Amino acid sequence: MTVKSILITGCSSGIGYDAAHGLAKRGWQVFATCRKEEDCARLRGEGLESFRLDYDSDESISTAVDEVLSRTGGTLDALFNNGAFGCPGAVEDLPRGALREIFETNLFGVHELTRRVIPVMRAQGHGRILNCSSVLGFTPMKWRGAYVATKFAMEGLTDVLRIEMRDTPIDVILIEPGPITSRIRANSIPHFEKWIDWEASPRAEQYRSELRTRLYEERGPDRFELPASAVTKKLIHALESPRPHPRYFITTPTYIMNMLTRFLPTRALDWVIAKG
Predict the structure, then answer these.
(1) Entry pTM
(2) Packing angle between helix 184-195 and helix 96-103, nearest 10 degrees?
(3) pLDDT band at 150 (very low <50, low <70, confident <90, very high)
(4) How far apart are CA 88 and CA 85, in angstroms?
(5) Which end of the chain is more exposed for a tag (fewer CB within 10 A), N or C?
(6) 3-class SS string, the chain
(7) Mean pLDDT across 239-249
(8) What is the C-alpha to C-alpha distance for residues 23 and 26, in angstroms, rounded to an integer?
(9) How far is residue 166 CA from its own chain's centroid?
(10) Separation of alpha carbons 31 and 164, rounded Å
């Protein structure tokens, strides 16, 4: 039986980490990439094949793809674009540089990596491209404008790619989690501190009482939060089913918000979201 291969980004923790280990246990040849070499070294110590892939660098993307192909003999069965980060802050306080930085990672790097693997999948006659979006890929939420913008854009680009790939043997799939246990909140703090001058904002008191409290305080799981293994379970179906779904919802909020966005008028939906 031929071993199938998958390239996964953002494997240092959370969704990518669980997916890498879960698929390796199922017999997949997993290339678990991270932005930092120290994280790759840790994963190699855990028995995974791991090397650097930084979405912000075309050279890093090219080198990683070449490494994959050298280890498989020129093939790749699947790509899971998972790496991403957040930059919390009110939209009016987001400088251009903050948006440029987050789009480079969350969308432009994803797009560049995808473009580099499509010719491989075309040549071999099969392949699956899975993009990790979010409930925030179709639902707006305050303080998360930068992240929401990248995920809305990812959904649009992925939907078009899926339609365009209908005449090819390549499946294009969206994974849409809601609240999942991960380090994304903690990892977003340096970006918030770099870009958001919250004390000079007209919303300074809201930052103090709402966002900063949520951002810096150690909290228990959010309501409806699921472990990363919930994503891996859907990921396995998307990879191994003979007819995968175009979209996979994960967590109750994703199902609820999908229904509300379809049936509620915009002002009513805004009210529901604003109330939390």
Answers:
(1) 0.96
(2) 150
(3) very high
(4) 10
(5) N
(6) CCCCEEEECCCCCHHHHHHHHHHHHCCCEEEECECCHHHHHHHHHCCCECCECCCCCHHHHHHHHHHHHHHHCCCCCEEEECCCCCCCECHHHCCHHHHHHHHHHHHHHHHHHHHHHHHHHHHHCCEEEEEECCHHHCCCCCCEHHHHHHHHHHHHHHHHHHHHHHHCCEEEEEEEECCECCCHHHHHHHHHHHHCCHHHCCCHHHHHHHHHHHHHCCCCCCCCCECCHHHHHHHHHHHHCCCCCCEEEECHHHHHHHHHHHHCCHHHHHHHHHHC
(7) 98
(8) 5
(9) 23
(10) 27
- Quick one: tokens of 97? 């540089």
Asked whether 230 and 180 are in contact (CB, 8 A), the reply is: yes
Six token digits for residue 41: 């070294």
pLDDT at 4: 98
Lookup: tokens for 206: 């809201």
Residues assigned a catalytic role: 147
Enter the tokens of residue 196.
Answer: 């958001």
